[in-house]
Amino acid sequence: MNPNTPAPSTRLAEVWSDTVDLRHLAWAIGIGIAISVAGFYAASRWLRGIVASPELAHAYAMLAGLAGCVLAGIICARLFPPKREVVEHSSTHDPAWRAEVLAELAEQPGGLGTLADLPEPVVRELKDLDLYALFAEPAAEASQPSARAPSPQAAGKEALA
Questions:
Q1: Distance between CA atoms of 98 and 4, rounded to whole angstroms?
Q2: 24 falls in which pLDDT band (50, 70, 90)?
Protein backbone atom coordinates (compact mmCIF):
# COMPACT_ATOMS: atom_id res chain seq x y z
CA MET A 1 0.00 0.00 0.00
CA ASN A 2 2.17 2.83 -1.27
CA PRO A 3 0.18 6.09 -0.83
CA ASN A 4 2.26 7.96 -3.44
CA THR A 5 1.28 5.82 -6.42
CA PRO A 6 -1.89 7.02 -8.16
CA ALA A 7 -4.79 4.60 -8.36
CA PRO A 8 -6.09 3.52 -11.76
CA SER A 9 -9.32 5.29 -12.65
CA THR A 10 -11.17 1.97 -12.75
CA ARG A 11 -10.68 1.58 -8.99
CA LEU A 12 -12.01 5.06 -8.18
CA ALA A 13 -15.59 5.75 -7.12
CA GLU A 14 -17.54 8.67 -5.75
CA VAL A 15 -18.78 8.21 -2.18
CA TRP A 16 -20.54 11.04 -0.37
CA SER A 17 -19.33 13.59 -2.96
CA ASP A 18 -15.70 12.55 -2.59
CA THR A 19 -13.45 10.41 -4.77
CA VAL A 20 -12.18 7.22 -3.13
CA ASP A 21 -10.03 4.27 -4.14
CA LEU A 22 -12.23 1.20 -3.64
CA ARG A 23 -9.31 -0.90 -2.37
CA HIS A 24 -8.38 1.74 0.20
CA LEU A 25 -12.03 2.06 1.18
CA ALA A 26 -12.23 -1.68 1.84
CA TRP A 27 -9.05 -1.54 3.93
CA ALA A 28 -10.38 1.47 5.87
CA ILE A 29 -13.65 -0.33 6.62
CA GLY A 30 -11.73 -3.40 7.82
CA ILE A 31 -9.42 -1.30 9.99
CA GLY A 32 -12.42 0.57 11.44
CA ILE A 33 -14.26 -2.63 12.30
CA ALA A 34 -11.18 -4.26 13.82
CA ILE A 35 -10.21 -1.33 16.04
CA SER A 36 -13.73 -0.41 17.19
CA VAL A 37 -14.80 -3.99 17.96
CA ALA A 38 -11.50 -4.74 19.70
CA GLY A 39 -11.88 -1.56 21.76
CA PHE A 40 -15.45 -2.47 22.68
CA TYR A 41 -14.62 -6.03 23.80
CA ALA A 42 -11.44 -4.99 25.64
CA ALA A 43 -13.27 -2.23 27.50
CA SER A 44 -16.23 -4.51 28.22
CA ARG A 45 -14.00 -7.18 29.74
CA TRP A 46 -11.99 -4.64 31.75
CA LEU A 47 -15.06 -2.71 33.00
CA ARG A 48 -16.98 -5.81 34.17
CA GLY A 49 -14.63 -6.12 37.11
CA ILE A 50 -14.64 -2.41 37.94
CA VAL A 51 -18.25 -1.23 37.49
CA ALA A 52 -20.99 -2.66 39.71
CA SER A 53 -23.73 -2.68 37.08
CA PRO A 54 -23.24 -4.78 33.93
CA GLU A 55 -25.47 -2.39 31.97
CA LEU A 56 -23.25 0.54 32.91
CA ALA A 57 -20.15 -1.46 31.95
CA HIS A 58 -21.75 -2.21 28.57
CA ALA A 59 -22.58 1.49 28.01
CA TYR A 60 -19.01 2.54 28.82
CA ALA A 61 -17.69 -0.20 26.55
CA MET A 62 -19.81 1.23 23.73
CA LEU A 63 -18.13 4.60 24.33
CA ALA A 64 -14.78 2.86 24.03
CA GLY A 65 -15.95 1.36 20.73
CA LEU A 66 -16.88 4.85 19.49
CA ALA A 67 -13.47 6.12 20.52
CA GLY A 68 -12.04 3.22 18.51
CA CYS A 69 -13.98 4.47 15.47
CA VAL A 70 -12.43 7.92 15.85
CA LEU A 71 -8.97 6.39 16.25
CA ALA A 72 -9.53 4.23 13.16
CA GLY A 73 -10.59 7.32 11.22
CA ILE A 74 -7.37 9.10 12.18
CA ILE A 75 -5.25 6.09 11.25
CA CYS A 76 -6.99 5.65 7.88
CA ALA A 77 -6.69 9.35 7.10
CA ARG A 78 -2.93 9.06 7.57
CA LEU A 79 -2.62 5.80 5.62
CA PHE A 80 -4.79 6.72 2.63
CA PRO A 81 -4.39 10.26 1.23
CA PRO A 82 -7.23 11.91 -0.74
CA LYS A 83 -7.61 10.93 -4.39
CA ARG A 84 -9.21 14.14 -5.63
CA GLU A 85 -7.52 16.44 -8.09
CA VAL A 86 -7.87 20.14 -7.41
CA VAL A 87 -7.93 22.21 -10.59
CA GLU A 88 -7.46 25.90 -9.96
CA HIS A 89 -7.74 27.17 -13.53
CA SER A 90 -11.09 26.12 -14.84
CA SER A 91 -13.91 27.66 -16.81
CA THR A 92 -14.23 30.45 -14.21
CA HIS A 93 -11.23 32.16 -15.85
CA ASP A 94 -12.99 32.22 -19.23
CA PRO A 95 -14.36 35.75 -19.88
CA ALA A 96 -17.18 34.45 -22.10
CA TRP A 97 -18.34 32.07 -19.36
CA ARG A 98 -18.23 34.87 -16.77
CA ALA A 99 -20.23 37.18 -19.02
CA GLU A 100 -22.83 34.45 -19.50
CA VAL A 101 -23.12 33.86 -15.75
CA LEU A 102 -23.39 37.59 -15.04
CA ALA A 103 -26.11 37.91 -17.70
CA GLU A 104 -28.03 35.07 -16.02
CA LEU A 105 -27.64 36.76 -12.64
CA ALA A 106 -28.83 40.06 -14.10
CA GLU A 107 -31.99 38.36 -15.37
CA GLN A 108 -32.87 37.11 -11.88
CA PRO A 109 -35.42 39.07 -9.81
CA GLY A 110 -33.56 41.93 -8.19
CA GLY A 111 -30.78 41.80 -10.78
CA LEU A 112 -27.15 42.38 -9.99
CA GLY A 113 -27.61 45.66 -8.17
CA THR A 114 -24.67 48.01 -7.80
CA LEU A 115 -21.40 47.80 -5.94
CA ALA A 116 -22.27 51.05 -4.19
CA ASP A 117 -25.12 49.24 -2.40
CA LEU A 118 -22.74 46.78 -0.75
CA PRO A 119 -21.46 47.24 2.80
CA GLU A 120 -17.74 47.94 3.18
CA PRO A 121 -16.84 44.47 4.60
CA VAL A 122 -18.41 42.81 1.54
CA VAL A 123 -16.49 45.11 -0.82
CA ARG A 124 -13.25 44.28 1.03
CA GLU A 125 -14.00 40.56 0.76
CA LEU A 126 -14.71 40.88 -2.98
CA LYS A 127 -11.39 42.66 -3.42
CA ASP A 128 -9.56 40.04 -1.33
CA LEU A 129 -11.01 37.28 -3.51
CA ASP A 130 -10.22 39.21 -6.72
CA LEU A 131 -13.91 39.30 -7.61
CA TYR A 132 -14.46 43.06 -7.34
CA ALA A 133 -13.31 43.77 -10.91
CA LEU A 134 -15.60 41.01 -12.20
CA PHE A 135 -18.67 42.84 -10.89
CA ALA A 136 -17.30 46.33 -11.61
CA GLU A 137 -16.77 45.59 -15.34
CA PRO A 138 -20.47 45.05 -16.23
CA ALA A 139 -21.42 48.26 -14.44
CA ALA A 140 -18.70 50.20 -16.29
CA GLU A 141 -19.72 48.69 -19.64
CA ALA A 142 -23.36 49.55 -19.01
CA SER A 143 -22.58 53.19 -18.18
CA GLN A 144 -20.48 53.76 -21.33
CA PRO A 145 -22.43 54.56 -24.50
CA SER A 146 -21.42 52.40 -27.41
CA ALA A 147 -21.34 53.29 -31.10
CA ARG A 148 -23.36 50.24 -32.11
CA ALA A 149 -26.96 49.55 -31.24
CA PRO A 150 -27.32 48.04 -27.78
CA SER A 151 -28.44 44.46 -27.52
CA PRO A 152 -31.47 43.56 -25.40
CA GLN A 153 -29.11 42.07 -22.77
CA ALA A 154 -27.07 45.28 -22.65
CA ALA A 155 -30.26 47.28 -22.23
CA GLY A 156 -31.20 45.04 -19.32
CA LYS A 157 -27.77 45.55 -17.77
CA GLU A 158 -28.09 49.32 -18.10
CA ALA A 159 -31.46 49.28 -16.41
CA LEU A 160 -30.07 47.20 -13.57
CA ALA A 161 -26.88 49.19 -13.11
A1: 36
A2: very high
